[in-house]
Amino acid sequence: MFQVSPEQRLSILKTYGLTVDRLVREDERKSITSISRSRAWELENQGKFPLRKKLGTHSCAWLLSDLLIWSHQR
């Protein structure tokens, strides 16, 4: 299961000069991770990719820190 501690989140954000985490939508997620939507969905179901946050009936987003940590772990 993909798990991230609060310390890891702060550390990765500081690496990029950020102080606050934010939500990232699909287009930016793809740009950060360079994997397709279907591959991200597969990995998420296997517990190998950050879980998306449901925003509404037809929208979701990911935490930027989760995506950055996942990218660096690859």
Features:
74 residues; 4 helices; alpha+beta; single chain
Task: Describe the main β-sheet briefly.
Answer: 3 strands, antiparallel
Beta-strand portion reads: 5-15%
Please tally the β strands and state the result.
3
Unreliable residue runs: none
Helix content: 40-55%
Mean of all residue-level pLDDT scores: 95
Query: Alpha-carbon distance between the termini?
Result: 15 Å
Which value, in Å, is the CA radius of gyration? 12 Å
What is this structure's SSE topology?
Layout: H1 6-15, E1 23-24, H2 26-33, H3 37-45, E2 53-56, E3 59-63, H4 64-73
Antiparallel strand pairs: 1-3, 2-3
Helix pairs in contact: 1-4
Polypeptide structure, described:
The chain is an alpha+beta fold and 74 residues long. Strands 1-3-2 form a three-stranded antiparallel β-sheet. It has four helices and three strands; from the N terminus they run H-E-H-H-E-E-H. It has one domain (6-73). A hairpin with a 2-residue loop joins strand 2 (53-56) and strand 3 (59-63). Helix 1 (6-15) crosses helix 4.
